Amino acid sequence: MIPYLPLNEINARYNPELQETINRVITKGIYLLGEETRLFEKEYAGYIGTRHCIGCGNGYDALWLIIRAYKELGIFSEGDEIIVPANTFIASVLAITQNGLKPIFADPDPQTAVIGCNEIEKAITPRCKAVMLVHLYGRNCYSEEIAMLCRQKGIKIIEDNAQAHGCLHNGKRTGSLGDAAAHSFYPGKNLGALGDGGAVTTDDSKLYETILTLHNYGSMEKYRHTLEGVNSRLDELQAAALRVKLRHLDADNSRRKEIARRYIAAIANNTVNLPVVKDFDGHVFHVFPVFTKQREALQAHLAAQGIQTLIHYPVPCHKQECYREAGTLVLPVAEELASTELSLPCHQAMNDNDVTRVIECMNSFR
What is the pLDDT of residue 284? Predict the structure, then answer.
């Protein structure tokens, strides 16, 4: 059996370090807003390349806090618009609507599955205040062309970096390219915690201070509440575990890239489209997607050979029941990707024989 993502095997590789750090936290007896969180925030900000990092409860909260903080600062208002790709996890859109703003769904590029400058430009209206760049599957979505457009139009760039920890663009890491970035440490991410966790990174000190207040009940001083905040804090155990795993992130991403290179070079099946990757620095392969009109048959074929696969986002956001008001919107690329995507195993616990087996079974599919 080749599992899609065996978290027990992945985390077993760091087990001695994790056990030591968890025992340290338990012995110390401080479980929230302590030294482990402060150190992780400092280390992760240094890794990403930003001045500030705030740990929070999960990746959705990180996105929500960014948008809410911009509202508190008077930069966003109720009814303002944020451009977002239709082919993303629902959290990207929920963070917009649950702040009283309007998502403007954009169709992605068919080769990269991320949104490009042309689609963003077409979606901009006078009410547009931001674009959310989702680094989907671990692929960088940012470009200088997008940045120039946003500067000209006076709109913010919010990065959804939930799937792209460690990804690079011209030597800089995603999460440091826009005005602010949200990160998810859900256990299955490239940098995954042992439960839920998230973070915001930014160079904007006013935004940082606002989020720092918001994420702790709107308080910077106990029992003094300057904002109507929420409880969204990264706990000490998760921060300690993330500090361990951060030290291994680049090596783990390198292994994912090795596997992806082998897949791209060796899978040869004219019923399947592979990712088009021109810059391997700009991808960390959180997901290795293939696209085929015979998805169900291919998934069954691989399962019969003991290879587990997943389908990511089979219903695009603009077709979700909770956003039924957008149901008449037609976004052909997003809809095509949703109906054809299949994710192959691609993670640091795979050995070379596993990779060879996946390639052979992909090539034997008819």
Answer: 98
Give the tokens for residue 316. 């695009």
- What is the rounded average pLDDT of the residues 290-310? 98
Q: Tell me the β-bridge partners of 343.
A: 289, 310
Planar angle of CA 179, 180, 182, nearest 5 degrees: 155
Reported residue count of the chain is 366
291: part of which helix (H) or strand (E)?
strand 288-291
User: Which bin fits 29, alpha (ψ -120 to 50), beta or left (φ > 0)?
Assistant: left
Residue 338 is predicted with a pLDDT of 98
How many CB atoms sit inside 10 A of residue 276's CB?
A: 12
Proportion of the chain in helix, strand, coil states, percent, rounded to 5:
45, 15, 40
Q: What is the pLDDT of residues 116-148, one digit of tens each?
A: 999 999 999 999 999 999 999 999 999 999 999
* % the chain with pLDDT above 70: 100
pLDDT (mean) for 216-222: 93
The residue among 184, 122, 185, 120 whose CA lies nearest residue 156 is 120
Model-level pTM?
0.97
- Comparing CA positions, the residue from 104, 114, 107, 109 lying closest to residue 83 is 104
Nearest to 156 by CA among 123, 122, 133: 133
Distance CA 350, CA 251 (A): 14
Q: CA separation (Å) from 127 to 22, 81, 92, 103?
A: 47, 6, 19, 11
**Both tokens assigned to 22:** 């968890």
Q: For residues 18 and 244, is the Cβ–Cβ distance under 8 A? A: yes
